[in-house]
Sequence to fold (449 residues):
Amino acid sequence: MAKAAVVYACTECGYSAGRWFGKCPGCSSFGTLVEEVTGPAAKARTEPKPLLRLVDVSAEEAQRIPTGVPELDRVLGGGLVPASLVLVGGEPGVGKSTLLLMALAAMSVDRRALLVTGEESVAQVKLRAERLGGAGRVEILAETELDVVCETLETERPDVCVIDSVQTLYSAELGSAPGSVAQVREAAARLLRVSKESGVATILVGHVTKDGSVAGPRVLEHLVDCVLQFEGDRYHAHRVLRAAKNRFGSTNELGVFEMTGAGLVGVPDPSEVFGRTVDGEPGAAVACALEGTRPILLEVQALVSQTDLAIPRRVATGVDPKRLAMIVAVLARHAGIALGQADVFVNVAGGVRIDEPGADLAVALAIASAARRVPVRPGTAAFGEIGLTGRLRPAAQAERRLEECAKLGLKQVVAPPDTPKRPGLRVAEAETLRAALRAGLETDVEASV
Ligand SMILES: Nc1ncnc2c1ncn2[C@@H]1O[C@H](COP(=O)(O)OP(=O)(O)OP(=O)(O)O)[C@@H](O)[C@H]1O
Ligand SMILES: [Mg+2]
Fold:
């Protein structure tokens, strides 16, 4: 009989090798390689399968399932795709179980919805369901054995199944502990097969590691169709759901929720919550960023303080640190705002992260406003990408951004050239960063240079 092979796999990145290393050659973390026993590969005879023509596939199979939570539908790209595998990651306590139980309860009205719980007892889930306003006709299975879960899915064939969480599932065939890379990988691969073959839309809940990636296996992210990240501070009420990967929709969509005693409530108009600044306050500007198809107004705050450090700090929360460094450099070179002796802190309201270059101008405005202690003009928002030459580049979908600004009652928008006009809103077109600062700030900062 062939001997079971021993491999050493990294719990952080999934790298595996035939011998142990103190430092993982894959991700350079220390002490993360653990021993795993894998069984000998079984040789099975395979039969060829008949081929299918794509035109013959009935369109019904691709019909999406509305989850009953509009913000979740938006992030999924318009609902859950049948027989797909979705991974929802998030920090402990952020509200993953709450969100998915709400969705299951809504979907159970006209579909079979199953919750496989490995973390909480049936009674605990019941208590939560009561708090959230009823469990509908959700079916529940408290089980951690992978074989039993797969077997049940194959016989019961529910339309939707939530596995809370993938780290609690274990297969006795593998020697390693539940939650280890080998176990999680095996669980995901088996569930992928079951979900495709039995037509069960499966949602896996995954825990995240301290650096924010879904615990252990990056491999998981390749396996699944869709990776959703549930973010937000446990100590703040607002939560943001975004897609890190989506085979059936845009990854730029954003869902915003508020955690209340009765569960997660969708925030259909996040601009109202995140896009308000106090007039006359230096260091705050409103960005009109575009998240997927949705324009959203976000308050960007900046603090500039004198420093004695040889290398001044550039601290960005919600903004890419590299972009912040670039904006600071362009401000110094092209707008006469030197920050070589100052620490710069930038923060985006509500724990939202902006990935879009269209928010550059608002970040620059906030920093310039903080550095010169001159407030941004009241009722002003800004968008536009800043080039390294100090010139503003047009931002995508300007009309939709302007529409959002008008909806919130703003008076002026500082924008790149060739931005379309809109009645009721003053569009201050600026070719360069210098001109944009002049249009956006209350007094001309160049006068105080
Ligand atoms: N009675 C309540 N009133 C208001 N909020 C509550 C109440 N009970 C729980 N919560 C909120 O629900 C959150 C926990 O939600 P949930 O259990 O869905 O998180 P989770 O992401 O599944 O966590 P874990 O990773 O530990 O399973 C808590 O952080 C808390 O904010
Ligand atoms: Mg949970």
In short: The mean pLDDT is 86. Residues 311 and 340 are 8 Å apart (CA to CA). Residues 90, 92-98, 119, 131, 234, 259, 261 surround adenosine-5'-triphosphate (ligand 1) (CB under 6 Å). The longest strand covers residues 294-306.
